[in-house]
Amino acid sequence: MIRFIKYRWLFVILSSVIILFGLISALSKGFVLSVDFLGGGLVEFSTTRATSVDNIHTYINTKYSGYLFQKTSKGFVVKSKDLKAANAKKLTEDLVKKYTLKQERFELVGPSVGAENIKAILVASALAILGILVYLTINFKNWSFAVAAIIALFHDMVVLLLSWSIFGFLFRAELDILFITSLLTTMSFSVHDTIIILDKIREEQKQQRTHTLEETIDLALNLTMVRSLNNSLTVVIMLSTLIILGGESVRWFAVALLVGTLVGTYSSPFIATPIYYLLERKRV
Amino acid sequence: MKNNLLFWVSILSGIFLWIAIPATSFPLPGTSRKVVLKTENPSFNILGLKISIPNQLRFGLDLQGGSHLVFELDTKKTPSSDVVRAVDAARDNIEKRINLFGVSEASVVVLKNNNVYRVAVDIPGKKNPQEAIDLIGKVAQLEFGEYAVQKVQQGTQSADIPYFTKTKLTGNFLKKTQLVFDQQTGKPQISLLFNSEGTKLFAELTKKNLNKPLGIILDGQVITAPVVQQEIKTGEAVITGTFTIEEGNKIVNALNAGSLPVPVKLVEQRTVEATLGKSNIQKSILAGALGLLFVSVFMVVLYGKEGLVALVSLAIYTIFSVALYKLFGIVLTLSGIAGFILSIGMAVDANILIYERIKEEKLVQKSQQKAIVVGYFSALSAIKAANINTLLVCFVLFNPFNFAFLPLFGMVRGFALTLAIGVLLSLFTGVFITKNILWKLYKISSL
Questions:
Q1: Does this model's pTM top 0.90?
Q2: Quick one: which of A54, A93, B313, B316 is 20 to 30 A from B103 by CA?
Q3: Residue A194's pLDDT is what?
Q4: Residues of A in Cβ contact (< 8 Å) with B409
Q5: Which one of B338, B392, B397 has the shortest CB-CB distance to A253?
Q6: Low-confidence residues of chain A, pLDDT below 50?
Q7: Per residue in B35-71, pLDDT tens?
Q8: From the CA of A246, how many Å to the nearest CA of chain B?
Q9: Which of A83, A181, A248, A252 to mutate to test the interface with B (most CBs of B within 10 A)?
Q10: Chain A residues in contact with B295 (beta carbon < 8 A)
Q11: pLDDT reported for residue A20
Q12: Are residues A22 and A81 in the same domain?
């Protein structure tokens, strides 16, 4: 039997280090925000093999300074706060005349639209978290379980959010509405996974096969570890195929979901459970 | 009894499988005849009722291509008691205009946020969004003006400046507008037909302004001012002017759609090319199918015989999901796919939980049957709690009561809906079907 509770500080340190790295990245480099949040416009072009994307890049840099340029597998993306409909039309007409390419996508977002959407999602998340708290307290008849699950949930969302600053810095991964959806997915998954373990702890407490709280929790963790790993592996398999085969528009979304799944799996035994242990020890 | 249950599940799965597959036909081996397994638009006649089965999976604009447009309605000048009516009228009007544009499957929805009203228009397919935007943004207010003259004195010189005063008669009283061609010149003209109230107003107007020009004003511009020859009681009129057939058609469309009660402004636009969308769909479906295959292999490797049971329930789960998406016309978006993947994880999780518990019980219990029964039922409480919790999250995110302070847009809702369907289905397949198969497999008769 692995004595997880004995090594609880190890997990606290591990999580702290990850969050610290994320914080440093978020504070110094920030996030690569999409037009959803920036407001403004985005135009995506696909090019044929013969066209040199680098040439277009230099051209755009000289003629349209201030426009962000981003290479994609099939072409490139131009985005800017000033890329309103008229400007986008001008840019497209200009580029199509000079190079052989095709406009694939156009997005225009008013500055207030993004902010309002985010506000609505935040309110919904807060309500959902409150609902989870109430439901778990009723279900487990003990608020320590609920508090532990919610803290693990916050841990997961913070880690995923901060990791996106690092992904943005390294790979220019964007923080967009799809990423927000992946945060919501992580929220559901994290609590789902935590409940399974907490339920096992409750069951072992009822059966009284062990003597101390620490032993009970360790037994429950050991018994659910295989299930946790196997279950996460199925989600990881699904997401990995999506990352490899799913195409550009889904790729970063799938990566965010993958990070969320991994951290959600990790936090159930290693964050939620030690917190439950600390809360219960104080209470008893 | 148990026998019967599995029998009915198999029948239901067969029906759902048939709904889930695309239209299929294949040649009968050895003959030239074709076996049609499913037609393009399958329908049945049951007791005189024609029931047609939807055969298309509906994909969101991010997957299939198309344009998502959001217009903000300027209701500042509208009296507050009239706002709701004006917004509804504007929505209907925008829908009419979009339909005139030749898109029938467009969706037009009002989004309310505090006191800001927006109308979201989703146009699937290849249509040029700019034309739609121009058409929607057009005010198209038709007015009829009476001729008047203003004397302007400038020093010793005086001049008569003609102008038109607005009358009660507007495009709102139109019953029908049509593009016709002049019998003699072949030039396009716009024929107007007023409704009964408009006919009355028009008769009064023409009687009053006999032998004077009558201004026909579109969007504030006088397009033509014919001299009234006689009182017109039939409510018919013709606008002649110098416009091309195409321009004439645009005016006719705009007039038929009526005028927008409030000014609109485009605040958001997302356009995805249909070709990009198509490759998105193909790649996502391939990835989803392969992912399911890998998960199946993984389950069989891990749990052997029981893994096969999980595989059966996973297969039923997938078939039911696709069939339900078709039956309810659920629009699949990228975020919906996330919900689906997560729910597959949860469906498999139910199986894994049960099997791990059974393994655990096998060490304690004397008989295999007893281990399966005890393991199965001890796993239920965790499965129940975890899934109720997920449904709770789905409920808040889906926002079924349309609360203004919660998300009202497709991205989050699509995710919540597919996840909720997935969770409910996974309870059915991962828990109920798995139990029945296990009970049969290990000859457990009762508890």
A1: no
A2: A93
A3: 93
A4: 117
A5: B338
A6: none
A7: 777 777 777 777 777 777 777 777 877 777 788 888 8
A8: 5
A9: A181
A10: 234, 237-238
A11: 95
A12: no
| B2-20+275-441 to CATH, choices 1.20.140.10, 1.20.1640.10, 3.40.50.11540, 2.120.10.30 | 1.20.1640.10
Query: Do residue A174 and residue A257 come from a single domain?
Result: yes
Select the residue of A102, A199, A238 nearest B385 (Cβ to Cβ).
A199
- Residues in chain B closer than 8 A to A184 (CB atoms): 393, 397, 412, 415
For residues A145 and A124, membership in a common domain is answered with yes
Number of domains in chain A: 2
Question: In this model, does residue B147 exceed pLDDT 90?
Answer: no
**Interface mutation target, options B276, B281, B343, chain A, most CBs of A under 10 Å:** B276
Per-residue pLDDT at B2 exceeds 60 = no
Tell me the one-letter amino acid at B414.
G
Kindly tell me if the per-residue pLDDT of B153 is higher than 70.
yes
| For A105, nearest residue in chain B (alpha carbons) | B272
- The pLDDT of residue B258 is above 70: no
- CB–CB contact B396 A127 (8 Å): yes
* A184/B contact by beta carbon, under 8 A: yes
> Which ipTM value was assigned to this complex?
0.80
pLDDT of residue A16: 93
Q: Cβ–Cβ of B341/A235 closer than 8 Å? A: yes
Domain ranges, residue A182: 5-32+113-283
CA distance A189 to A262: 10
Domain boundary among A76, A109, A142: A109
Q: Are residue A221 and residue A145 in the same domain, yes or no?
A: yes
State pLDDT tens for residues B387-433.
898 898 888 888 777 666 666 566 677 778 888 998 899 888 888 88
- CATH number belonging to domain B66-139+264-271: 3.30.70.3400
In CATH, what number is assigned to the domain containing residue A27? 1.20.1640.10
pLDDT given at position B162: 78
- CATH number corresponding to B144-243: 3.30.1360.200
Select, from the ranges B49-58, B262-271, B306-315, the one with the highest average predicted confidence (pLDDT): B306-315
